[in-house]
């Protein structure tokens, strides 16, 4: 997030705090009037509910805006009123409230309500600045994915060879001769750091000092449990020993990048009838790199869900005439939302109540007040877990690419948009040449590494807007929206050229694999299935004419 954006968010948060003060001041004044009336015997059941709800809102929101003492005192007063809801069986509810209310809302209770004004006048508690610093670090989701790998090795020739090999897999590389030189190099974003283990162990070097949050992979000429343990203790994210199998290393780096990206992003829907809290939570999460959709009116939630499709939902328990658990249970009526994680965000601390609320459609509970840093971390963790579960259903387990059916569905969407907007788009079918021989000669584990190698290269070379899926076995599908046939041919031919130069190792032998591609312009066909069939026919034409390259539908 830029400095200008950070300043804008800080100003908005300060304005929200001022709005909270004004609103809380008015609520406390009304509380005082109502409590005085009840204490004089003039209260009714509706007045008791009004006092309870006002205290409940203060208990849940005050701490969010830094007024911790105010929130704690409001919570204690709220718990005192809870006694009015706990009667013996058979007792008349109305009669009990009329009898017990003046006793509970006595002069002492009124004095404590008046004291809320003094707590509101106190300066808000200072936030944990060290926790807030995490908001200002560049997040992976905010930076163009460049996949930059820094290689730290005093042997210049060895470092250059590794750099060249990794570049074939789609990575950009930076070479440094020593840890000190690496620390001095100014790099905005690193995907990973590959460093020789000897200077790390010799100098007891704390690996988190290099590259901020970038994972560090150590390479050693020798392997031992003691060395691995020591490197793990120093903060290493991975370990390889000579001679390094570069395709395996590249796949490992790709996995670390994916885990890092998925741990710092997500789509969150927040449902809350308190506009100040809703905006505050949204700003905090957006500041942390998340996409947020705000729902202030719960009656609009079904339409909003279909439009936004969040990873998780944050929902208040009490929202005016709407009850959170009832709303959650209603969402589960639709099979599409059965697996959507719903997290309640409430000041309710009663564990039995929390369990009952979760039994009605919720999955988790965050208790207000919650600090900004804790809220962000809690939501990121839950978003990451939600996406991991979703990937089991939608992603190919070996490559992480879209599964066959979902890939076809995404191609269909691109086809519809291309026809509607009259944009050029391309669909391509890709197939590894003579792949059966790879499995037969080098084994299926090596074959899996070849498949993952192509998947990773496609991820690096194609755009984020492009669709890539594993169609089956060694066959892949790709759709490139808003892309001409000539541009698509050029980029996919470069993928073929680059992939053919990657050296794999199996059965103690080195080998290379080539790639054939068939393409067709999406918008020229009435359906996406017709375009895919045309691309498939172009692929077979490529196979017949010598493999290792690109053929476009209609080529002679």
Would you kindly provide a written description of the structure presented here, covering whatever features stand out?
The chain has helices at residues 3-39, 45-61, 68-81, 93-104, 107-121, 129-132, 156-168, 179-184, 197-202, 225-234, 246-262, 275-287, 301-308, 324-331, 351-359, 372-394, 404-421, 435-442, 444-461, 485-500, 528-544, and strands at residues 148-152, 172-176, 192-196, 216-220, 238-241, 267-271, 291-295, 312-315, 318-319, 322-323, 342-346, 364-367, 426-432, 467-472, 475-480, 504-506, 509-511, 515-521, 549-552. It is built from 21 helices and 19 strands. The protein is α/β, with parallel strands linked by helices and 556 residues long. The strands form five sheets. Strands 2-1-3-4-5 form a five-stranded parallel sheet, with helices on both faces. Strands 7-6-8-11-12 form a five-stranded parallel sheet, sandwiched between helices. Strands 14-15-13-18-19 form a five-stranded mixed sheet, with helices on both faces. Helix 1 packs antiparallel against helix 2, helix 2 (45-61) runs antiparallel to helix 3 (68-81) and helix 3 runs antiparallel to helix 5 (107-121). Strand 4, helix 10 (225-234) and strand 5 (238-241) form a beta-alpha-beta unit.
């Amino acid at each position: 997030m830029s400095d200008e954006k950070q300043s804008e968010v800080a100003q908005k948060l300060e304005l929200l705090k001022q709005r909270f003060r004004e609103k809380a001041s008015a609520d406390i004044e009304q509380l005082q009037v109502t409590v005085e009336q009840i204490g004089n015997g003039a209260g009714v059941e509706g007045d008791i509910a009004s006092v309870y709800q006002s205290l409940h809102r203060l208990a849940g929101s005050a701490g969010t805006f830094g007024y911790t003492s105010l929130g704690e005192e409001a919570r204690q007063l709220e718990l005192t009123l809870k006694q009015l809801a706990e009667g013996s069986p058979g007792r008349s509810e109305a009669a009990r409230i009329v009898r017990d209310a003046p006793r509970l809302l006595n002069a002492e209770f009124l004095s404590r309500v008046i004291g809320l004004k003094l707590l509101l006048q106190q300066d808000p508690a200072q936030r944990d600045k060290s926790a807030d610093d995490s908001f200002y670090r560049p997040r992976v989701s905010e930076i163009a994915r460049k996949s930059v790998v820094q290689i730290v090795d005093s042997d210049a020739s060895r470092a250059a060879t590794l750099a060249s090999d990794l570049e074939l897999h789609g990575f950009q590389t930076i070479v440094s001769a020593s840890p000190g030189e690496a620390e001095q190099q100014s790099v905005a974003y690193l995907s990973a750091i590959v460093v020789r283990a000897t200077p790390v162990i010799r100098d007891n070097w704390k690996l988190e000092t290099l590259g901020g949050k970038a994972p560090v992979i150590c390479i050693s000429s020798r392997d031992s449990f003691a060395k691995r343990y020591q490197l793990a203790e120093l903060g290493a994210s991975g370990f390889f020993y000579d001679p390094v199998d570069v395709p395996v290393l590249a796949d490992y780096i790709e996995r670390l990048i994916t885990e890092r990206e998925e741990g710092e992003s997500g789509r969150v829907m927040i449902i809350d009838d308190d506009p100040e809290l809703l905006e505050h939570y949204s700003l905090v999460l957006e500041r942390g790199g998340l996409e947020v959709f705000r729902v202030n009116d719960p009656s609009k939630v079904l339409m909003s869900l279909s439009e936004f499709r969040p990873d998780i939902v944050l929902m208040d328990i009490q929202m005016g005439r709407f009850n959170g658990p009832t709303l959650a249970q209603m969402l589960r009526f639709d099979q599409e939302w059965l697996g959507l994680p719903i997290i309640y965000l409430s000041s309710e601390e009663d564990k039995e109540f929390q369990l009952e609320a979760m039994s009605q459609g919720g999955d988790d509970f965050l208790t207000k007040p919650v600090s900004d840093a804790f809220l962000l971390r809690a939501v990121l963790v839950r978003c990451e877990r939600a996406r991991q579960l979703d990937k089991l259903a939608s992603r190919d387990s070996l490559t992480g690419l879209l599964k066959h059916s979902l890939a076809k569905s995404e191609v269909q969407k691109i086809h519809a948009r291309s026809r509607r907007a009259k944009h050029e788009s391309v669909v391509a079918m890709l197939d590894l040449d003579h792949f059966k021989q790879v499995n037969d000669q080098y084994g299926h584990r090596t074959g899996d590494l070849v498949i993952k190698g192509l998947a990773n290269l496609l991820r690096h070379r194609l755009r984020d807007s492009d669709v890539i899926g594993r169609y089956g076995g060694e066959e892949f599908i790709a759709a490139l929206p808003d892309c001409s046939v000539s541009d698509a041919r050029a980029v996919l031919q470069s993928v073929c050229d680059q992939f053919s130069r990657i050296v794999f190792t199996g059965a103690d032998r080195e080998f290379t694999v080539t790639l054939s591609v068939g393409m067709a312009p999406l918008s020229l066909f009435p359906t996406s299935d017709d375009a895919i069939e045309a691309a498939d026919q172009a692929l077979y034409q490529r196979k017949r004419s010598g493999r290792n390259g690109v053929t476009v539908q209609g080529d002679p």
